[in-house]
Write a structure and sequence with these properties.
This protein is α+β, with helices and mostly antiparallel strands. Helix content is about 40%, strand content about 35%. It contains seven helices and seven strands. It has a seven-stranded antiparallel sheet with strand order 1-2-3-4-7-5-6. About 20% of the residues are buried. About 5% of the residues have low confidence.
Length: about 230
């Protein structure tokens, strides 16, 4: 076979592979939409395929990063008597590269996350709790941003930041810290009237439930006096 024929066959194979990947992606997204819609119908929740109002609903990473931000597969309703919203959040960045011959190219890269948030019905300071790595611990201590609590096990496992150290200490009482130590990969934050958790990638239905269970359980353990202070704030 002539060289030109081989090139045509290779190009045809590549094109077929691109089409196959596109079709599989479309079918996977369609299946996901159907699963979210069925879950909402089963539980009396609302579901919309896209609602970009939530793109600017919260602060802090990953919100506000990149461009072409979108919120999709949006679930909302009541969870354990509390209003909630959960959705897929995506933003894009443009990456540039230069080859050995000095030719520049650029490509769009998508970054996907799953967000679950419960409306707490009061305004809380911006407390954020994240699983801690070595570098975040060192940086947090150098900048005095990482709040140290009375449990060394908890301090080693999590990074805590909050403009109000007393609020952080009141919320992260011994029973709360013990609970979180049983969920060491958990991350959450209070953002004005919401408590939310963010995970990279897209969540399965069980992971949707797990995210809501986690932040609902955290709210259940916030002391009553903290609620009274927040309601009067």
């Amino acid at each position: 076979m002539a060289f030109g024929g081989i090139v045509i066959l290779m190009f045809g194979g590549f094109l077929a592979l691109v089409i196959l990947i596109g079709v599989l992606g479309y079918l996977s997204a369609k299946k996901r939409r159907e699963a979210f819609g069925a879950l909402a119908a089963q539980r009396g929740w609302s579901y919309v395929e896209r609602d970009d109002r939530w793109v600017d609903g919260f602060v802090g990473a990953p919100f506000g990063l990149g461009h072409s931000r979108r919120s999709e597969n949006v679930l909302s309703g009541q969870y354990d008597g509390r209003p909630f919203v959960a959705f897929d959040y995506t933003y894009y960045t443009t990456e540039h590269s230069t080859d050995s011959e000095g030719r520049s190219t650029s490509r769009e890269v998508s970054h996907s996350f799953f967000v679950a948030a419960i409306d707490v019905g009061a305004s809380f300071p911006a407390l954020e709790v994240n699983p801690e790595g070595f570098f975040s611990r060192v940086i947090g201590r150098l900048t005095n941003r990482d709040i140290e609590l009375e449990s060394e096990d908890f301090n080693r496992a999590f990074t805590v930041t909050c403009p109000d150290r007393k609020f952080a200490s009141d919320v992260l009482h011994p029973r709360m810290m013990e609970f979180l130590l049983q969920h060491r990969d958990s991350a959450f934050r209070f953002d004005r009237r919401y408590i939310l958790t963010v995970r990279a990638g897209q969540a399965s239905i069980p992971e949707v439930d797990a995210s809501l269970v986690l932040i609902d359980a955290i709210l259940d353990q916030v002391p009553e006096f903290v609620w009274r202070q927040a309601e009067g704030r």
